[in-house]
Amino acid sequence: MRKKEVTFKEISEYTGFSKTTVSRYFNDPDSLTLENQQKIADALEVLGYKENKVARMLASGKTEFIGVIVPNLFLNYYSEILNKLLSTYEKYGYKFLVFAGNEQPETERKYISELLAYKIEGMIILSHTISSEELASYGVPVVSIEREDKYICSVNSDNFNGGEQAAQMLSDCGCDVLIHINSDVPPEIPAHKRITGFKEFCRQNNIANEVLLVDWSGVFSENVVKTEETINYLDEKYPDKRKGIFLSNDNTAANFLNCLVRKHSCLPDDYRMVGFDNSSVSAEAIIPISTIEQQIDKIAGEAMEILVMQMNEQKKRRPVPLKEPVHKIVPTVAIPRDTTKNREITKQK
Amino acid sequence: MRKKEVTFKEISEYTGFSKTTVSRYFNDPDSLTLENQQKIADALEVLGYKENKVARMLASGKTEFIGVIVPNLFLNYYSEILNKLLSTYEKYGYKFLVFAGNEQPETERKYISELLAYKIEGMIILSHTISSEELASYGVPVVSIEREDKYICSVNSDNFNGGEQAAQMLSDCGCDVLIHINSDVPPEIPAHKRITGFKEFCRQNNIANEVLLVDWSGVFSENVVKTEETINYLDEKYPDKRKGIFLSNDNTAANFLNCLVRKHSCLPDDYRMVGFDNSSVSAEAIIPISTIEQQIDKIAGEAMEILVMQMNEQKKRRPVPLKEPVHKIVPTVAIPRDTTKNREITKQK
User: Fold this and answer.
1) Are residue B267 and residue B286 in the same domain, yes or no?
2) pTM to 2 decimals?
């Protein structure tokens, strides 16, 4: 059922050009006149030529492949970013070789070394497994998203301002004390700036605050228990205060909200909440959750732009590598929903 | 920083073998003695040879690429299946070129034709865009998951039994009338059998039932309105009956549950619910939702097994194509949680 393979000999016989000329059409088309290029293109059409990209790849070094490494696809943030990256196919024509790393450095290294053997043109890295220093040493254009990025180009959200925006939203709806719940993110990870932005806002505005670093598990039911314990702790420590809770992502926020509603049959009036990401879980929660949007469209778009720019440079006869990695910051957007409203937002008992 | 490219000439000089022998090592290693293979392998190590897979691909026709086409990655079912497919890299070594189709047949055809030009070895198709007849005509091994599959191999859940299991769970907790909420799935789509399985169970057990086909939107807020209308309809039509609701997926089920809880401040005693998929949303809902598990691990595993079997056949000198497409059915598993329990499952007013 496959179209037959057409040989250079047949194309040569059909067009009257020498086989050398036909070969030049594939490997260096601009060495032929436009007219002759068109004649060969027409002949290919008639002969039912089926392009063998592997042969072209070998000749040109342009594979049109980009490797993407994500930690996993069960967190909405990663699958949503990947969705946006894949959708750039229509714009750029690059094809994506996707790998879910699961934090196993050896498997990830083996995969990357295969990608390099396949002459991929560039990589987009969301996993945290391999240091940016090592990634830079592979000699292929790389852009990272929201991970340690000292030696490679990156696109990150404005996490610092995001932390400030979250604190601002909670402060605006009259919270007495602001609580930020996060995990122990190391300072070199961009998301760490959510903590510093939150703290800085509280310091400048003289608002009582507390940062709780929780050791989240990969098992959901364990995180429910940890969240219930956190709520009991907050209820006891701040019984008469309105508590503004800023959670480091929307999945954690949805879980926190569910635990609160299970305990109190509603979101009690002494709680306000803000998540982070604007993943679908925040809008689809039992009470729509206010959040800080990461502009995933823009992040994916900027990552591709920086990568394409580097990949195009690599195709020049004398590529000039970047002197310094480019670090692009994408603004976050405050999305107010029901968990920061000052009214009775669920039926009370 | 890249390792230098090592030429056949250098390998030949280092080992004392002719360039022809070196070439045979790469393209037909078994034509050399094991001892000579080892000598060349050792030399490659010493010379820092970096495999150029593109050249090997061209020589062997084995690209180790599989194309995967999903409709999108925002529905948990698709991102979870993709996650499992990608994780087979460690077992089989195949790399996945992933495309999110967004139901645009022309873009999807263009993408597939590129994949074929890159000599991918096989495809796994979850999108519904292109008919199985057309996919079969491409002459490359294909396995589909949960879509029309008349002319191609496929792996699907036992949707019929899944529909029966859902009705059984609802019947077991004392429901008077069973309602199945789905969209208007055409009969050639495997998921249609959820409807027929549900109906067959009700018929055999003489249980009052109704199938509601809803025209779901891509916009979540519109689906909230449609769900609220459905609940009002059910409350009015069956005021004194215990209603057992079977929803066609867990995302829809979570939305239905949220709408019920918003209206009644709890899951009222005259409602029981079962979803479908066992996606994370069901376990993480405000009240953990009973569901019918699609065994995503097994589905992905079986799809790869059938595909690898076909791809291996293609590598033989005289491949024998399958006489008939293989259609594999994976059992579903009933997962009882709180929405089918017969007790007070949330605090009542």
Assistant:
1) yes
2) 0.83
